[in-house]
Automatic annotation (TrEMBL):
It comes from Ceratopteris richardii (Triangle waterfern). SUPFAM superfamilies: P-loop containing nucleoside triphosphate hydrolases (SSF52540), Toll/Interleukin receptor TIR domain (SSF52200), Winged helix' DNA-binding domain (SSF46785). Coiled coil: none annotated. Residues 4-166, 182-352 form the TIR domain. This is TIR domain-containing protein. PROSITE patterns: TIR.
Amino acid sequence: MMTQEYDVFICHRGETKRNFVSVLGGMLRSKGITCFVDYRMPTGNDVQLEINGAIEKSKVFIVVLSPDFAGSTWCLDEIGEIMRIRDLPGTPRKVIPVFYDVQKKDTLYDLTQVKRSNAEKINRWGKALEDVCKLDEFVYDSSSTLQWEKSQEIVAKVEDFLISHRTIPDQGTKMPIWRECINYDVFICHWHLDTQRNVVSVLRGMLLCKSITPFVGGYGKDDGGSALDSDIIQAIENSRVHVIFLSPNFVCSKRCLEEVVYIMNIQGSPGTSDASRKPTVVPVFYDMKPSTARYQKEGKAYYLEEAQKSSTADDRERWASALHHLSLLHGLEYDSCSTFQWEKLYDVVKIVEASAKKITPRNYWSNHEALYVKKIDEVFKELELQEKREHVFLAGVYGRETSEFSDLLVQRLGSNFCGVCKLNNIMEKACQPNGISKIVQQMLSDLIHPSKSSDLIQPSTSNDVKRCQLLLENERCLVVLDDLGNDIDKIKTLLEDLKSILRNNSLVVVASQFQHSLQELNVHKFISLSSLESKRDFLNICYTERDGINKAFLSHLSETFDMLGLDVRLLNEDKLKSDSTCLQDAKVTLCIISKSFSIDEFKSMFTNAAIPPKIIYVSYGSNPTDESIPKPFFKMEVDFEKAEFNKPQFKSMVNEVVQTLNERGEEIMGAIDFPVGLAQRSSDIECSILECVSRNENSVQCFGLVGMGGIGKTTLARSIFNKIHSQFERSFFGLNTRAEVQGKGTLGLIDVQKKMITKLSNIRSDDVRIDNAEHGKMVLSSKVKHINALIVLDDVDDGRHLEAFCEPLQSSLGPKSVIIITTRDQKILGSAKSTMIFDIERLDEERSTSLFYWHAFMKPKPPADLEKVSQSVIEACQGLPLSLKIIGSDLYGNSDREYWEDSLKLLQKGKKAIVDVLRISFDRLDTDEKEAFLDICCFLINEDVELTCMILKACYGVGKAHLNTLKNKCLITTYVGEYDEYRGRISRIGMHDQLRDMGRHIIREERRDQQRDQRRDRAWDEETANEILQRNAWSSLRGLSVWSHIPLPEDASDWTSLPRLRILVVKHDYWRDRTHSHAERGRLRPQDIFRNVRCGGLRWLRWEGVPFEELPQGLCSTNIQVLELRACYKLKRLDMTSLWSLRALFKSHNARDWQQYCLIFIKYFPFIKRLIVF
């Protein structure tokens, strides 16, 4: 029989088997990570063959070095084999040592005392132990370490390794993080010295994984407390389950005894006649018999006369009575010497789960949830009333909010089934190697009780399936599979496997955002949530009219949130008092607190109504208050006669709303500062699009937004996307298509195709293989087939974009799909066969005036002495939003009339092109600010803000200040980028394409004076690099960005030194690098040039796919501060002796030595600010 493949092999001695290893194995399996531990081997199998086979086929090895580890030749042989396997070429493997109740120095065991040993074995074992001790380790002290938290760290380490090597999918969430709360599901009573660090720690973690909130008094503290406080009493009263660990020293604690009294008083209270409403009490007799607590005999642990000598007789009598009645309740006995910890605590969790999640009375559900509950009850009713009973009843759930529905279904119906399993991200998991098998195994791990699961194996043969059927033959199971994805073949394979195992009228619920997938599965019951899901989110703005709140401020509030796609309702005080229920359906409520409208007055309106889920308070004006200030709270001095608008505070408040909605999966794209006049225009276009789609739902509809650069096309497209994306199964916004593709050739097209596929199909980018643009069209067409999606392609200016993106989408998307294209070229929209084209016009005089005033003065009106000149400046901007924004921001803060008039003259000096208008703001920057702006134009758009700060500081001595100046003048923006698997969501640099083009034009423009080529000092693509080389301007080169596969002109071979070069970026096109012709191979590429060139002034080096074994000395500048070496598989050595200015190192490599190397690096480079190794 072939050995099963495992993700993890745990090498351990018997002394850790029942506690630490039992829990660690259970935690790994609960994450879908297959794990080998010897005590779970199938009965009758050859032990030696099983162990050797498991080691050979595992990827991660956890070695638990305990005091008696070396007493077992089995353990020593295992560690020897593990270290031998680890160093073999091929599959990457990781060894994680855990020092369990031993110090590292103690692990040099006296191997001469090992029985049945010889010199050869002792040397081999000693070498293996010595090598293990050199690795990054975990230290576990059973007397002080919290078991769950330490095990969680180990599991996270394993998970990170397996995810990085694509063995398991990234599920987006780790183990649960504890947060303080008010209402608890479970109260855990225990004596901390006996049980908190082991069983209580693990039980607490297991409950949190089940979304059950436990209260553990004094968790993680050495002092368990001595008396009942209000928090403990409240937790006992609010909990539905009381778990009491009666351990040998339990009665040493007065607090524990008082907790038992309080709990038992609740059980005996005559105030609750309905026993089902009383909390469930679960006594766990930990290393003691129930009779010990029941009779409390002299000489025994629970003899209170001895344990509580200093207490009064009355107290001892109360405690004795409570313990006696508690011991009469049916509980669980736990012997730490013979009990497998995970398996026994699993029994406790099942009891708690059944009690803590009892069906809630109907009046508890919100209106939204009540509709879901009705659908859930329909499913169960149909399951029970089948005329012909099936082994498996299949229900399909369609909608965007299937996760919330699935959670509610498990909570509502779970108690009707023997086993329950809910799995998320099914398609992502199914796309991994052996993905279907791993999903089935994880399901079986959840459904089959641990006491039976020692025989559980991966069901790959008919005999294996029969064994699983036998284990579940009398079980009725509930299985919920969420996020099925769009690959119908994988879904069908998975369901066939489930149907071959499950029996007894089990219920399988499959949930998907794609209706066509469920229809192809022939489900017994189809549930559509689309009619129950809100198409747009409501935002209520509550205020009083008594304090004369500025109408311009209210209008700005309303327009800003309308652009975010929210249905904004302005509710004054009278409306709230007459009908406070109008707030119930809003996702967020914004309450404007003013002089006559206090927080307490606002809250008093909810006496007979539900409190909104999220309330954000805004203080309007300087109003002193004695009230406690709730969070979140934003204070705004809105008095335009005395002060200007507080833009940073306003943006913080807007970001709070956006963050709240994005946490709910709303995909809200960020707002602009002052969307004057755009909200109504966006709503008009939205209505026209939806009306057109409603008339024709049989084919993909394409719409176009056309207009000159800077007119607001992208802003309008973002707003429309925000407003209607929730009406589609999936959505994709392709920002700056031209910039994404420009200068990248085929690779640029492929990158955008990959982004579309991953976003629309919800699969990882690494799982999408595209060879070229034509192949990408076929892959895109197959992956998004039948999906009803909203697609926005921004700034399309080339027919190749339509061929690579639009054509496959139009031929494969579902009939209710919509494609929106923004462009400056009307012909593009004709080629795309647009159903309707919207010509975006300039702003009228009123809106131009309003937009300019906000940017120039942070007020809706200007000072009287600048009103006339302001009108002339506005007229010169010709209604172009970008010009009004840039010129207004440039003039902001300057009240000198003469300065304004000079600006007007520049605008009127025959400069009609927008680039000339924008140039005015650039020309007023100081020298370093100009250089920083040009660096961003050429090299830093879409880069990490923190990284950009470091680079600018390295080049000019100042980073953040330059960014703030450019941002205040609206020359750059910042935005939160897509999720990064290493650093999460990070803030990035953005720039309008007109500004980018202006900056690059400044660099390339011809000068007729003596400084003609002074600006030709940056090259950001092949064309500009060739221009500089042809003009022999390379000696003045400040920045260079090139592709590793593109050869440079032969003149580059003359380079010996680039003294002014500050920035060098070498990008790597993996596909092109493999396939470029032999003729090109003979020409000079960047690695050939820079092997011998000195770059003494270099500040930032990024080289992707470093082709050197050692970085050339010429690139190891003493001035370099930011070093990025990505995918540097060939790099074997990095000489740091000259890199004393280094502040940030980004390193990507799969070698095991690098993380340890970088820890040493930190020690010798104390000034390092940022180190990333992945």
